[in-house]
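Extended Data, record Metal-dependent hydrolase
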Amino acid sequence: MPKAKTPADLAITPRDRRFGRGVDRARWWLNGDPIATAFYNALSVTFPKGEGFFIDSVRKFREGTPPRLQAEINAFIKQEVIHTREHVAFNRHVTDQGYDISTLEADVDAQLALTKNRPPIGSLAATLCLEHFTAILAHALLADPRNLDGAEPEAAAMWRWHAIEEIEHKGVAFDTWMHATKDWSRWQRWRVKSTVMLITTWRFYDGRRRGILELLRQDGLTGPRVWAKLIWYAFGNPGLVRKVMGHWFAFFLPGFHPWNHDDRALINKADSEFAAAVMV
């Protein structure tokens, strides 16, 4: 099995914060923009059940892992549990604004149901793919302040905090996968994870597209002009989806590891700004 490339001095630190309790939030909390708001709201709806799936998938392979990886899995689980709690609270703000998210939640349930009665290694493969998605989205979010310009402070702080921790633990599911498949050939490992990534990519983007459009429909915003504005937001300006494409392609390269792209400097910068804001 190739040696894991997670930095030896990396610390995965659960930051137990609570955001937005007792705070009134506008319906369009991100710069008064319904499209930007729907983009993040639709993503948030997926997290409580999705992160529960990640936890279960990784935990099933924790036994027998090297001590360091086992400690990282434990820290990963703690971070994801706290993320789940905060997105439940965030989603409560979404419904408080009159949005019906039941259709979005049903879509998440349907996607998770596809993993039932499948081998646990398949769920782990899906998890490492989705964890790669969250890590590269987190990187793009933190790298360009325009993504959260004009956001209500508590909402912006929650998304930045989540992004920091997604980058920090981005290698855990991958390293767990490498350990779990240590007896596989490199070809078999690449074939399975690449196939799962292609399937996951389609389901991820199609699900978020439908979720965003459903929330916009509830705002009375439909039709080609709205679709064009959504495409421009995702791929043009600020273009969060466009900016992750290079890192998405890197997943298929031989020798890929999430920490081949060491973006700890971005974590440190965002974390220091976050800590300063908390102190104030």
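Summary. Residues 186-218 form the longest helix (33 residues).
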